[in-house]
Write a structure and sequence with these properties.
A hairpin with a 4-residue loop joins strand 3 and strand 4. Strands 2-5-3-4 form a four-stranded antiparallel beta sheet, with helices on one face. The protein has one domain (about 1-100). It has one helix spanning about 75-85, and strands spanning about 1-5, 5-10, 25-30, 35-40, 60-65, 100. It is of the alpha+beta class and about 100 residues long. Helices cover about 10% and strands about 30% of the residues. The chain is globular and about 40 Å long.
């Protein structure tokens, strides 16, 4: 299956309202020189904790809201973004038979 999701991006230095109430989002932690991690987050964003490996870096949150039809493919979208951005910390996502076009 081929999907082309619509993603709306917001950048913020810290998690605060209204972002903490969002669910089913892509979270990218980045600093000016490097992408640190790409996460698919299905719970409320207020519960998100950055991985301990990135605590030594100063970073910003880039939060992507995916359209409703594509939320069930959130992990596949995160995997494609991870392949494209080459982050410092690589997550393993299970994604079979789905091709994401960004």
């Amino acid at each position: 299956m081929i999907i082309k999701p619509s993603i709306q991006w917001q950048a913020t230095p810290s998690l605060r309202a209204p972002f903490i109430y969002w669910k089913d989002v892509i979270v990218i932690l980045e600093n000016p020189s490097k992408v640190l991690v790409v996460d698919a987050w299905r719970e409320q964003l207020g519960r998100y904790k950055a991985p301990p490996q990135v605590s030594i870096f100063k970073f910003t949150y880039k939060i992507g809201q995916v359209d409703d039809e594509s939320t069930k493919y959130l992990e596949c979208i995160a995997d494609t973004l991870q392949t494209k951005l080459k982050p410092l910390i690589v997550r393993k996502y299970e994604c079979k038979d789905v091709v994401v076009i960004l």
